[in-house]
Amino acid sequence: MLLAAACGQRGGGPSGAASSALLSAPSGGPSAAASEVASAPPAVDDETDPPPALTFAEQRGQLYAAMKNKRHMSEDELSAVKEIVEASPLLGQGRPDDTTHPITRAACRAIRRAAKVVDADPRCGKPNMVPIYDPTRGETKETAKLCIDQFEFPNIPCEYPVTYATSRESALLCKAVGERLCDAHEWEGACAGAVHSIESEYHFDAPRNYATYLHNKEREIVWAYGPTEDPTLCAEAGEKSPRCDATGLVHCGSNTYPAGSFPKCVSVFGVYDQHGNAAEHMNLPLKPEELMSRGGAGQTEMKGSWFASGRTKLYEDDCRWRAKDWHPSTLMTENSHRNYHLGFRCCRDVP
Question: Read out DSSP for 58-85?
Answer without folding.
Answer: HHHHHHHHHHHHHS---HHHHHHHHHHH
